[in-house]
Design a protein that fits this description.
Blueprint (H helix, E strand, L loop, with lengths): L1 H47 L1 E3 L5 E5 L2 H5 L3 H34 L3 H9 L6 H12 L4 H8 L13 H25 L4 H8 L4 H12 L1 H16 L3 H6 L7 H10 L4 H41 L1
Antiparallel strand pairs: 1-2
């Protein structure tokens, strides 16, 4: 009895020590997340419910003025424009990323292609934006090239419009879509495509009815990884956009630096956070539903 009790006591002490070690190991990450994520979010929430200071900042007085100001028709128009630009750029990004991910999986040079996708991350964000400005500018590479080959006589305004913003956003966030799609396609059993073709399906039918439903989780992930940062974009619309491409990120920056209306900037930031959170929850819900559906289908086929 004493031996059994001592063994049980030793096992319980060992379990407690493992739990304590786990808490110790996770403590730095917990502190980091609390300081650099939770604390700024709480400050934004607090500022959104305070009054604007006379010379900027906030006044410690509870108020809903910032949220009431969100009813401004100009903010509603900019919000709609931001959603349209973000959705357009995200859809184009995923449409380009899908064949890229498929080609990378089927290629014998996966490591080289992955390196080429990752290399842009090694270059500063602003340098890449300014490179596109040199390409699309009135005296830039594209206009000079079209002039030299005789297609145009006067320069075309490729820059400072909504199309330029969408183009640069697609370029900037294309790797964020390719990598999750590559990971998802890499796990796909390509013998299913061959079986579908043997049963009479065309290549397009096999892709649309077999491949795409199987990698839907990767598509959801790619959508989230691209839409969320694009929705809050600031630098790209500022540098390559015009009046028709003013986005919510620019509104927040202007309220902080020009109007010095910190509560309104915080309220807009909270609205962005809520919208993106709802989007993430919806995508996760769709992904879980698809996983359950695929699981049920697999069980039926096994039975």
């Amino acid at each position: 009895m004493n031996i059994a009790a001592s063994r049980d006591g030793g096992a319980s002490r060992g379990t407690l020590m493992k739990r304590n070690m786990g808490l110790i190991y996770s403590a730095p990450m917990t502190v980091w997340a609390s300081v650099f994520f939770l604390a700024p979010l709480l400050i934004i929430i607090l500022y959104s419910f305070l009054k604007k200071g006379l010379y900027g900042g906030v006044t410690p007085e509870f108020s809903f003025d910032a949220y009431i100001a969100l009813k401004n028709p100009n903010i509603a128009v900019i919000t709609l424009k931001t959603v349209l630009i973000s959705l357009t750029a995200t859809v184009i990004t995923i449409l380009i990323a899908l064949p890229c991910g498929y080609f990378m999986v089927r290629s014998k040079h996966q490591s080289l292609l992955l390196m080429l996708i990752i290399i842009p991350f090694w270059t500063n964000f602003l340098i890449r934006v300014y490179a596109w400005m040199n390409i699309l500018g009135n005296q830039g590479f594209l206009n000079e090239f079209l002039t030299q080959i005789g297609l145009i006589k006067e320069h075309i305004n490729f820059l400072y419009n909504q199309n330029a913003v969408i183009l640069v956003l697609v370029y900037m966030y294309l790797p964020y879509a390719i990598l999750p799609l590559f990971s998802s396609i890499d796990k796909f059993d390509f013998s299913l495509l061959e079986a579908a073709r043997d049963l009479g399906a065309s290549s397009i039918q096999a892709m649309s009815k077999i491949l795409l439903p199987s990698i839907r989780g990767g598509i959801y992930t790619a959508f989230l990884f691209t839409f969320i940062p694009i929705f809050g974009a600031y630098a790209v619309p500022l540098l390559v956009g015009g009046k028709d491409s003013y986005m919510l990120g620019n509104v927040i920056a202007d309220q902080l630096t020009k109007s010095r209306n910190w509560p309104l900037a915080s309220a807009i930031s909270m609205a962005l956070t809520v919208v993106t959170t709802i989007g993430v929850m919806c995508m996760l819900g769709l992904q879980r539903r698809d996983e359950k559906r695929l699981g049920k289908t697999a069980k039926r086929s096994m039975n």
